[in-house]
Amino acid sequence: MKKVFLAVFLAALLVFSGCLQPNVEEVKAATRNLPEVREILKEHPKASISALYLSQEAVIIAAKDIKNDCGKNIKMQAYWYITVLVSGKKTELYLDESLKNVHCIIKPKDDPIPLENKCRSYLDCDDNLLSTRDGCDGNPKECTHRIIIECGAKEGYCPPGCTYATDKDCEAIDLCSSDGDCSDSNRLTADICSGTPKACNYKLKTCEDLDEDLCEEFEVCLDKSLPVSDKGVCCDEACVKTKSCAGVKCQENYKCINGGCYEMNCADRELDLCTSKEICDGEYFRDSLGISCCTGECKEPCNNNTECGLDRVCDEDGYCTFATCEDARGKVCDDTEVCVGEKIKTENSDECCTDCKLKSCEERLGEICQISEFEFCPKATVPAFDTTTCCINGCDINACLEVPCGVNEKCDYITCIPMNCKERQGVNCPSQLCDGNLAITPDSLSCCIGTCIG
């Protein structure tokens, strides 16, 4: 019998008949106490239960199909039609309105006898071998033990072909015993045997170690420069004076002109020029052009709000300032952001910023999970500047890796459960025709894998 089409038809009939149905959730709760259902739930506690009320008129209309399944002696009266779904296999029951008497039970035809699992999860399957990954798979479930062959699995075992460099579970074997074992025939590097386990490391020498010239300020290299650990230019030939600013670094508040460093003026230093209404809360700097500028902040003194215009107010220190961050055309960065613009002091906030951006995952004290078959974030990820997979509570090994599920199932940690209608890319069509295939899901008796029509 095509029960799904019957359920859709009967549900529609019930709606138009005007009958008052009992509460479906109460019926489902009462059904759990039936011995026939308790036996299924004992083995499959996550089985889904659905209930549909069939009026006497609906039962009479479907009498032929019901008698084919339940026998010709079943009474033509109102029933509760109950389905218990486990891994795509359905047990059907017809209950009278008292919810105490089962008049008909239809077990799955392809599996009338419940299969007995030999394990509940991978925790029941420890074979005490570090070289295997234990699992609880199949139907019925039984223990599996897959040999670990990938490096870096972090399971306390070093697979063949792996080394300490690719898998920290492998033995740390020294690759050298002294600096003399690490010669790379390169005069620019110091050859060092170090670390645990010991391995060859190569560090750039200084210009002095190479007995070459490190060019001074306002000098350039006449020939080629050498890569060294020093800051500056190490010259393989000779250093000469230059009038070019290329490579010339001047101290703070000085700039290079024709190979020499000269003090910056107010415009170069981007200092504020206070107006006649303002005073400088720092020191005035007078540059070579005779211009005075403020090394601090230019502030406008005031006695009341009226003197500060429309956008500003007179603060408690007697200076005109913005009342709110919004008035200053800025924003206060929230806990997920960092200020990358200019900070503006306002009357009610010292955290007003002209430009905010998301913090990095590291700044959020998170961890970037390698979202894949081997790793997942046990809780929802948070937004971060450098990744979409920033996990605050740390990453976890994907426990579903060794749990094979059916086509219409999904893994919930270590257990396969039926997909809901949306996860099966379907829509609920309770009173419409389906242009596709109908399916029963935990949240719908009439999930249309297609489109609803009519």
The residue-averaged pLDDT reads 82
Cα Rg: 39 Å
Q: Describe the oligomeric state of these chains in a short phrase.
A: single chain
Give the terminus-to-terminus CA distance. Answer: 24 Å
Structural category is: mainly beta
Number of helices: 6
Question: Quick one: overall form?
Answer: flat
Give the total of beta strands: 35
Low-pLDDT segments, ≥5 res: 1-6, 8-20
> In percent, how much strand structure appears in the residues?
25-35%
* Helicity, as a percent range: 10-25%
Walk across the major sheet and give the strand order.
1-2-3-4
Q: What's the main sheet like?
A: 4 strands, antiparallel
What does this structure look like?
The chain is mainly beta. Among the domains are: 1-121, no CATH class; 213-263, no CATH class; 300-358, no CATH class. A hairpin with a 6-residue loop joins strand 3 (89-95) and strand 4. It starts with a helix and ends with a strand. Residues 1-6 and 8-20 have low confidence and may be disordered.
